[in-house]
Each structure stands twice: as C-alpha cells, then as structure tokens.
Specification:
By secondary structure, the protein is mainly α. 59% of the residues lie in helices and 3% in strands. The strands form two sheets. Strands 1-2 form a two-stranded antiparallel sheet. The protein has a two-stranded antiparallel ribbon with strand order 3-4. It binds fe (ii) ion.
C-alpha cells in the first residue's frame, strides 16, 4: 500500500494500479520471452545445429570414404574435417534424436522434433546457400558488394558472428584455392578425375537423394566449383559448427533464462488459466518451465556437447602435415594458413577489447569468442575444432 500521506489517496490508488499493471505486464512479457526462447532453442538445435552441420555433412563424409582413395589429394585435404563426425552422429541417433530420446523429451515440439528437422531440410536447405557469404545475404543482413574482399557488405557492422566468420571464411577460401590450384592447374583435370566426380555424384544423388533433382546444386566442372564446394564443407565442419555448438551450455544452460521447452501456453484472457496466472504469475511461469528431470537432462546434454575433449584438433592444426611429404609448396601453404588463423585470433581479441563494438565489449556484455580458433579442454565457450566431433 503506497502512503496516502505522501501521494494523496487518489494518486496512491492510481500508482498502485500502475505498478500492479507493470508487474503483470512484465511477467506476461517474460512469459512471452520464455516462449520465444523455447522456439528459438528448437530452431537452433533441430535445424541449425543438427540438420545444417551434423546431418548434412554426413553424406559427403560417407561418400569420401567410399569413393576417394586415402592417397587422393582431396581426401587428404578433407580428412581432419571428417574426424569423429560419423561416430558422434551414430551416438546422437542412439540417445539424442531417437524416438523418446533426449531431444524429444526436452524440446517443445516433442515427438515432432525430427519431423520439423526433416521439413526444414525439404523446404529450406540449399547447399549453395550454406557458405557464410551466401547465407548472410539470404538472411538479409548483408548485401553483395564487389569492392569488399569477401564480396559483400554487412548491414550490421557490429555483428560478431558475421564479422569474425568472414575472416575465417576468407582464410579457408585462400587455403583451399591454393591447394586446388596446386593439384588441379586447369578445370579439365577436375572434370576428368573419376574419383572426385564419383565422390560428388554420390554425395548429391545417394546421400542427399531427396533433394538431388534440385537445380540449385553447384556443378563440379571447374576449379572454382571445386574451391567453392570444399570451402563450404570445411566452413560447415569447423567454424559454423563451433559457433552453434560450444556456446550451448554457457549461453543456454541456465534453464529459466533460456528454456528449451515450455509446458504451459500463454493464457488467453478468457481462459480459466488466466486467473491462475494473475493470482501468481511467477508460480505460473515456474510451472511452465521444463520439469526438474527434463531440465537436468537438458543441462547434462548441453554441458557435454559444449565440452572440448583434451585431444581436440583446432583449425590451423593437423596431426600429420607430413601427409604431404615431398610437396614442400603445399606444406608451406598449410603453415601460411595456420599463421593466418593465429592472426585472426589476435584480431578477434582486439575486437573484443574495443569499446566501440558494443555487441561484444562493455559492462555486462560477454566477449564474443565462439569463433576464436584456439581453446583448452573443457567448457570454454571458444575454440574452432577442425570437424564436427561432438
Ligand atoms: Fe555438435
């Protein structure tokens, strides 16, 4: 009760009504925010993380093992970017995306989770838009600009994922171009390489059979085609997956802040539930959140997914650069790529310390390190491994 001696009886009543309205308003807003978060968590997990990196890489990896000899230069290039992906996908099928598995139990769409993932694949996924520049343009946050090194201009300059990602995209593209030009000095060599053609044909027509008739598939006839296809694959396996995966616990592990699931809808004013909501909005909110068991399972899984193993191999590192022994030019080019990745890491550090970049630096703002290439083991919210390995 506000003091009528200070406010006067009428003003006091008006203010109380206002505060009560604000409190309820805030709570409705928080409830709405929680629902937005739970929907976003579903899109993140089912479409962007599982579908666009783990699942869509798998056909290319399977076909590489079936069609390319271990001595083939493209197999050697892709090898570190295929590490552990088939293993982690097999584990995901057993316990995460399986019927009644963790994903169905902990995300709002429940038993329709995989159906939604499949629908997004059928209606939205396009390999030719999966590279970073094409994806940013498709999402309406960049426009083509031939004067820029990566051929586009960001409409939001202080967008950490995009601006750091473009540094990595450029480094990958330069490395892949040097590599491809070394082994395929002209496009006829690309056309006449049977193993290479069979690899791509099987990836598209067997692995991605449901979409194989789509006209947007890039052809593989020139060295430029090969550079573009390989850069996209390595981008998806490394930086794109890292940006989606390793922040899951640090950014989303606290369930009340970002619930993956809401068990009660926002009540309509004519609904009986609305009275319950008005009587105690906080209780209503808490009862809408995942159950204790659901929340615990979800937290355990995203904690595991966000963890780097001690034997992780990061972008710019290779266990065996000697795989190219006898080809000093390529070994040197690889070390040049490694040096560029280290330079990018320093640039990201500088950006995170720049107070003009308010989306990554300032009071209460987390630095954006998801695309900082190196990391120690554990949950570090940074580090770009070579492959989709968790
Ligand atoms: Fe992952």
């Amino acid at each position: 009760m506000l003091d009528p001696e200070i406010y006067g009886p009428q003003e006091s009543a008006l203010k109380e009504e206002h505060i009560a309205g604000q409190l309820n308003g805030m709570t409705v807003q928080q409830l709405a925010k929680a629902h937005v978060c739970s929907n976003d968590a579903g899109v993140h997990q089912l479409v962007n993380h599982w579908l666009r990196t783990h699942a869509c890489m798998e056909p290319f990896i399977l076909a590489a093992h079936r069609q390319l000899s271990a001595m083939h230069p493209i197999f050697k290039l892709l090898d570190p970017h295929m590490r552990y992906t088939l293993e982690i996908n097999a584990l995901a099928r057993q316990t995460l995306i399986s019927a009644d598995g963790v994903i169905e139990n902990c995300f709002t769409p429940g038993r329709y989770c995989m159906e939604m993932s499949a629908a997004a694949y059928r209606s939205h996924w396009r390999f030719d838009k999966e590279g970073l520049p094409a994806d940013l343009i498709r999402r309406g946050i960049a426009v083509p600009d031939p004067t820029q090194p990566h051929g586009l201009k960001l409409l939001i300059e202080d967008y950490p994922y995009a601006s750091d990602g473009l540094l990595i995209w450029n480094a990958l593209e330069n490395w892949v171009r040097t590599y491809v030009n070394r082994y395929y000095p002209n496009s006829s060599l690309v056309c006449n390489d049977r193993e290479l053609q069979q690899w791509y044909h099987e990836s598209v027509h067997v692995g991605h059979a449901d979409l194989s008739k789509e006209s947007w598939w890039p052809s593989l006839k020139t060295t430029d085609d090969l550079v573009s296809i390989l850069t996209t694959l390595i981008w998806l396996a490394s930086a794109q997956h890292a940006a989606l995966n390793f922040g899951q616990y640090p950014y989303g592990g606290y369930v009340p802040n970002r619930p993956p699931l809401m068990r009660r809808l926002i009540p309509d004013e004519n609904d009986l539930e609305y009275a319950n909501f008005l009587a105690d909005p906080q209780k209503y909110f808490l009862s809408a959140l995942p159950s204790l068991l659901q929340a615990t399972k979800f937290m355990a899984v995203v904690d595991t997914l966000s963890t780097h193993s001690p034997d992780e191999e990061y972008l710019g590192e290779r266990q065996h650069p000697s795989i190219w022994s006898g080809d000093a030019e390529i070994i040197e080019a690889f070390y040049g790529f490694s040096a560029e990745i280290r330079r990018i890491e320093k640039e990201i550090e500088k950006r995170n310390a720049n107070p003009n970049l308010k989306n990554r630096c300032g009071a209460g703002v987390l630095p954006y390190e998801l695309l900082a290439p190196s990391s120690g083991p554990g949950v570090t919210c940074r580090g770009v491994p070579n492959s989709v390995s968790i």
